[in-house]
């Protein structure tokens, strides 16, 4: 272990926040203002969360002209640091959460100890794995209809998926698009009957069964899609300027899944509307506990809850 790691492990922090994004940075703002001097382990690549891959954010309160996702995260980070939070850009490789003093080991070999931990590791949208899919994120490729649907007014767009979330996205997008095509690689949807009935009854929604997206056309933005018949292998072109991928998401729970209770859907379980996990002094916030709403503003609210819960817990130790 390096001298720096040894020095770091000698300090016991009141609060360590694992992960960043709206939840982590909001938790940092609140705990910093409570003079708890939080340490945020923001991640080496994922710092700022999913909003770092988002262009215009027009539904976060307080920004009537909108704000770029990376700018919003930068503002939150600066605000947290203004009040005394420390942010490091490293990844957590190991956690020990069942002791009164928690131990966090980072990928760079630093050992950190804390009386309380807030987990805001988020979740990751499942991708199709297509070339240029990530490159065109925010330029016609999206994973969030409520975030980006407004930008596709009077356009032909595609929703990929066959579950409830896909049909919910498709139904929502009909408020803006002239046509929404749901592409599903099988002949039957997995969605509930009520969601299917609603989608089938919507005149703006069309279905393309037994097909999958094979390629994305366009240079700087989506200008069409190449689709493949999953039964025959035949390729064809679909006119579309937007593609919403709705094939699910995976919470980032791997580093603590063996220590904390997970829900049946794999998300981290907390007590009611609180942020309390099954271990004293361990709290969670943001998308890692929320498979439903997944918005920046709900994640930020969740981060506030976690910060207040952690503050109350620390006060009880005195």
Automatic annotation (TrEMBL):
The EC number(s) this enzyme carries: 1.8.1.9
UniProt domain FAD/NAD(P)-binding: residue ranges: 13-303
Needed cofactors: FAD
InterPro entries: FAD/NAD-bd_sf (IPR036188), FAD/NAD-binding_dom (IPR023753), Ferredoxin-NADP_redctase_2 (IPR050097), Pyr_nucl-diS_OxRdtase_2_AS (IPR008255), Thioredox_Rdtase (IPR005982)
Single Gene Ontology MF annotation: thioredoxin-disulfide reductase (NADPH) activity
Catalytic reaction equation(s): [thioredoxin]-dithiol + NADP(+) = [thioredoxin]-disulfide + NADPH + H(+)
Keywords: Disulfide bond, FAD, Flavoprotein, NADP, Oxidoreductase, Redox-active center
Superkingdom as given in the UniProt entry: Bacteria
Family statement drawn from the similarity comment of this UniProt entry: Belongs to the class-II pyridine nucleotide-disulfide oxidoreductase family.
Subunit structure: Homodimer.
Full protein name: Thioredoxin reductase
Organism: Saxibacter everestensis
């Amino acid at each position: 272990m390096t001298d720096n790691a040894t020095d770091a492990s000698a300090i016991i922090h009141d609060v360590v926040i694992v992960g960043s994004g709206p939840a982590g940075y909001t938790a940092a703002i609140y705990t910093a203002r409570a003079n708890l001097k939080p340490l945020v382990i923001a991640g080496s690549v994922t710092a700022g969360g999913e909003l770092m891959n988002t262009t215009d954010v027009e539904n976060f309160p307080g920004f009537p002209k909108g704000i770029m996702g990376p700018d919003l995260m930068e503002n939150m980070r600066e605000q947290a640091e203004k009040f005394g939070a420390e942010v490091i850009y490293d990844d957590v490789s190991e956690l020990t959460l069942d002791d009164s003093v928690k131990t966090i080991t980072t990928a760079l070999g630093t050992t950190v100890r804390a009386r309380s931990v807030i987990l805001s590791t988020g979740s990751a949208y499942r991708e199709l794995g297509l070339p240029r899919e990530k490159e065109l994120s925010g330029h016609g490729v999206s994973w969030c209809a409520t975030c980006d649907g407004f930008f596709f007014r009077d356009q032909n767009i595609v929703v990929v998926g066959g579950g409830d979330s896909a049909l919910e996205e498709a139904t929502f997008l009909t408020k803006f698009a002239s046509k929404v095509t749901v592409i599903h690689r099988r002949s039957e949807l997995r969605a509930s009957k009520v969601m299917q009935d609603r989608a089938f009854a919507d005149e703006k929604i069309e279905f393309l069964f037994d097909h999958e997206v094979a390629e994305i056309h366009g240079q700087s933005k989506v200008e069409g899609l190449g689709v493949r018949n999953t039964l025959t292998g035949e390729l064809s072109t679909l006119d579309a300027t937007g593609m919403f991928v709705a094939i699910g998401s995976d919470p980032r729970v791997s580093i603590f899944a063996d220590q904390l209770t997970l829900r049946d859907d794999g998300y981290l379980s907390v007590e009611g509307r609180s942020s309390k996990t099954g271990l004293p002094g361990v709290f969670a916030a943001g998308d890692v506990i929320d498979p439903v709403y997944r918005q920046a503003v709900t994640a930020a609210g969740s981060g506030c809850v976690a910060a207040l819960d952690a503050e109350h817990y620390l006060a009880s130790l005195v």
